[in-house]
Amino acid sequence: MITPLLTEEDIEALRNETPGTAHVIHFNNAGCSLAPTPVVNTITAYLQQEALLGGYEAEAQYEQQLNNTYNVIARLINAQPEEITLVENASNGWCIAFHGIGLQPGDEVLISEFEYVTNMIGYLYGKQHYGITLTVIPNDEQGNFSITKLKEAITDKTRLIAVTHIASATGGVLPVEAIGAIAAEHHILYLLDACQSIGQLPVDVAQIQCDFLSVTGRKYLRAPRGTGFLYVSKKSQHKITPLFLDGHAVSTINEQSYQLLPNGKRFEFYEKNRATTLGLAKAVEYALHIGMDRIWNRIQYLATHLRNQLQLIEQVTLQDGGNIQCGIITFTVNHCDSKEVKEYLALHHINVSVGLARSTLLHMNKHQLNSVVRASVHYYNTLSETDFFIKTLSAFVQERKTSQAHPHSLK
């Protein structure tokens, strides 16, 4: 079945519900997307009720909608509501899973070249404090994660495969289903960092076969900052120990013992922002209404167009690799600091970000990169925006070239 593309009328309607598009060309969706009006209205409406009724009273009034957050997230990733834990960000969710496994001296963890700085800190902490060993699965010459090397790396000491679905500073996508099949075959725990993929492309945890999936709301989901979720499969919930607990996490307690809840709420704290929780649910519903296949098709279409145009600009080098690439486009300008590029684009109301070496340390060091410019497109972006981006970047390159050739001709 062919997925219908988003039409020009669809895009216009989506942009009308995204007020920020009238002010900026937002190519920083891998950092934080522009929130749609329904999400903003959901948050502000709840805050108004809190102000009028009181915090606990507003929560009681919205109890059904708050509980429904688990249901809509489960629909998004093909999970069960009982497998969802609400967290403040992907890093929090990832740490709950990684540090809760109970890694022991000699346990081996297999990782990719694309690990984000938070994950790297966790791995290094694990080496120093748990005594684990780390094995990096190398990419091939095309930038693809090597399934062959993964199979060869597995030993009887391998306790965990922990990889990032889409890296922070390159546009490649890992073959997460193939990785999951190998993890399942060898009965190895599988932790997937999906902070850049959820909201960008379809994700089915049943097909991936991951035990844990960490997600943020602010990126491609277009949810408010300070939101996210962790998926912990039902079969793996007993395999991780919550390191911190409050009364929200237990079903019963007496003077001698307590009993954890039989679901993902055992990893939560009671106190969280109810307004942004509803905002997260609305953002998920918004994505589901559009359709993840349609979103992914649109993002790939825009990203391919932008990559093709970037390749035509002298002194610009694309830094993305892999056979499957996403809406994150990374590049460098020869002999130019990426921050300078970002600042020039910002003067023309174009938002991009800079990926520093520390953000994706293994990948950046391997390719001898200090930084990259990261332009990340979303479905509400347009071809006219990508064309203006190319025109502006070309002007920057030309101005630099002129100033270097005639250093006293420009002030």
From TrEMBL:
MF annotations from Gene Ontology: transaminase activity
Family (UniProt): Belongs to the class-V pyridoxal-phosphate-dependent aminotransferase family.
Domain Aminotransferase class V: 26-387
Presence of keyword Transmembrane helix: no
Name of the protein described by the UniProt record: Aminotransferase class V
Region forming the signal peptide: none
Keyword set, alphabetical order: Aminotransferase, Pyridoxal phosphate, Transferase
Organism classification: Bacteria, Pseudomonadati, Bacteroidota, Chitinophagia, Chitinophagales
Protein origin, superkingdom: Bacteria
Transferase keyword on record: yes
Cofactor: pyridoxal 5'-phosphate
